[in-house]
Amino acid sequence: MKQLAIIGSTASGKSDFALALAQKHNAIILSIDSLSIYRKIDIASAKPSQDELSLVPHFGINRLNPDETASVMTFIDEYRAIDECAKNEGKNIIIVGGSSFYLKRMIEGLSPIPTYSHTTLNKAKSMLERLEECHRLLSSVDPKSMEKIAPSDRYRIEKMLLIYLETLEAPSQWFKAHPPQPIITDCPVVEIKIDRDLLRQRIALRTSKMIQQGLIDEVAELERLYGRALNSMKAIGILEVLEYLDGKISKLEMETLISTHTAQLAKRQQTFNAHQFALSASGRVDELLPIARSYLQ
After folding, report:
1. Which residues pair with 5 in a beta bridge?
2. Are residues 82 and 191 in the same domain?
3. Which of 51, 71, 220, 287 is least crowded, fewest Cβ atoms below 10 Å from its Cβ?
């Protein structure tokens, strides 16, 4: 079994590149994307079409409902599932997606967490009703770790509190004694590079197409079903439509803002990728094609 990870900014052509490679090199695809993981968020996530999904088995798409929370553990579970499938069926694996933070975490590894007792879980649930008190308690136990965590960050406070209650030691000491174990190994990472002007043109075209496909109706239905408070409702393409539905901006302004914010996201992705990965190759799609093929043969 061979593996390859493809990274790049949004609208750089990652999905099309991965699909073409998968069809020629007996591969299945793991999408690492913080929005495509959700069902019902189809247009806003720019996920592959049903026809494209039918060509090659995909993992990491349509796995959660919008009222669930995606995390690195979500994608670790997806990777373990695709790894088992690939081994059983004699397939290669292609990992692709814009949320490369999750890929980095899986390559570098995570520290194992303790097994939590029912007592610990129940105690933590009760304590978390007073979130700021939990933050103060943990800050007294592990000040260096907690200075990076906001008093309102329930997700991270809960993780730290569970470790402390179960082990009765500072979470930083637990992590020091249990160093990270890589989840993904032996996986070259290649990055798609794209000219800035061409990328902006693609983003504008994709935004226009999303609106034509029914983005506004999709977001309106998501709001009806789930409200606005969920993390999944704070994505680019959703927030701007909600502003339009509120009458705060015009349809043209909505489209312009989606394109602008997407371009800003692309720049952040490019910066992150440039500094966070030991790349095996980087270049335009045509330059990467023979290199990517060699990794899958």
Report:
1. 95, 189
2. yes
3. 51
